[in-house]
Amino acid sequence: MPDQQQKLFILEDDPDFRDDLAEALSASGFCVNCAESIAVADPRALASADVLILDLALPGLDGIGVLARIKELVSPPSLIFMSGSGEELLRAAATVARSEGLNVLGTLAKPFDPEDVVHVCTAPVVQPDAHACDRPCPQAILRALRIAVRDATLPVLFQPILTSRHLLFAGAEALLGDTLPGYGYVKPSDIILAASTQPDLLHDLTLLVLRQAVAACAQWTPVSGSAQVSINIPLVVLEMPGIVGRLRGAVQAGGVSPHQVVFELTEDAIYASSPVALGAIAQLRIAGFGIALDDVAQRQSGLLQLSTLPVTEIKIDLELLRQARKWEKARNIFSTLADLGHRLGLTVVAEGVESLDDLLLARSARVDYIQGYIVSRKRPLSELLALQTMLGGTCEPWIEPLRGVA
Question: Per DSSP, what are the bridge partners of residue 52?
């Protein structure tokens, strides 16, 4: 039962389906109006509706065409799309609606149970991040970042990586935190964006993160055997003269072996188009470092780069996993990418694993490692080491006890 009587409007041309759905939703406590097309819909009922349940295959003006009418309303209703023509059409409609500024609660493939509509209508609303509307000031970020890098005060956090099958601790990825000393809250992407305007600063930032990552790896290695640490390395840094020697020197000074360090390359940067960067990657691989292609499936370039880059690992983008929770095609793509990685002799990591269903999908696709909130959010090194001490290095305890603190 909804807490308050929500007003629903059903646009559906099949009279039997429409009437059965309206009756079931009315019995569940909703106030329901309906029509077979937008042409005969009661304008007042439509304008006052909280949710419009919209079939895409309507006579006359189809569901996509209806969106223009809905957008003109003073207070447009939230949308639930329904269709019997496949998930691709539903996804396309949802994307179009969101691009028009309309709120999409969900999509339903016919046939479905009326309880599915109730679930979508009554699901908790995710509140936006309190900082989502903050506008970062690039110059202020740069000033604070220069000082933080110079003084080595920039926080570096770590997100654990576990084996998919047995949930053994395998290492962690070093990530920037959400706080910049002297500035306050800032998204890591905004820090990188600001640093990218000054290549020397981006270089110093990369080495700072690497030194902290190596120091962390040296501390957890005695607890977990030969665990690895991963860090992102920008294309522009790989193109700098002498960078391979400086990276090797930082790792050697930290007391860990090159095979314990994985450099992650972002998929949207075309590393293979730069002979200098490609040469640096090859040298790092020869020296024993792991090379991971990050965000695979985010863009088409990732698969193309697999044929030219000497990578040892692929990380499947978290957005594909999010889509795989609902769409069969995305699940098939996820499994295909994992299979392709194994056929190429690569390690496969699934990012964004947040639920037991995500974990089961990763296991069914024979993914080697998982990373995501089901294990832990990114944490300061002290917290990660404390968790290792509390939980030990192995098995299922890495999931349930962390759920309350991740």
Answer: 9, 79
Cα 163 from chain centroid?
A: 19
- In this structure, how many other beta carbons lie within 10 angstroms of the beta carbon of residue 88? 11
In a domain, 154, yes or no: yes
Instruction: Output the domain CATH number for residue 82.
Output: 3.40.50.2300
DSSP assignments along 246-302, one per residue:
HHHHHHHHHT--GGGEEEEEETTS-GGG-HHHHHHHHHHHHTT-EEEEEEETSSTHH
Q: Is the pLDDT of residue 400 over 60?
A: no
For 90-106, what is the mean pLDDT?
89
Q: Please check whether residue 133 lies inside any domain of the structure.
A: no
47 by Cβ neighbours in 10 Å (0-12 / 13-18 / 19+) ranks as middle
pLDDT band with cut points at 50, 70 and 90 for residue 215: very high
Check residue 227 and report its DSSP letter. Answer: -
Q: What is the pLDDT of residue 393?
A: 52
| Pair (212, 315) in one structural domain | yes
pLDDT, tens digit, 9 for 90 and up, residues 51-81: 999 999 898 889 999 999 999 999 999 999 9
| Alpha-carbon gap, residue 100 to 102, rounded angstroms | 6
Average pLDDT rounded to a whole number, residues 377-393? 80
Q: What is the pLDDT of residue 290?
A: 96
Domain tally for the chain? 2
The C-alpha atoms of residue 391 and residue 394 are separated, in whole angstroms, by 8
Count of helix runs (H) and strand runs (E) in the chain: 16, 15
Residue 159's nearest CA partner among 228, 248, 233 is 228
The answer as to whether 127 is a domain residue is no
pTM of the model: 0.71
Tell me the C-alpha to C-alpha distance, in Å, between residue 349 and each of 30, 129, 156, 251, 313: 44, 27, 21, 23, 7
Which residue segment(s) compose the domain that 91 sits in? 7-122
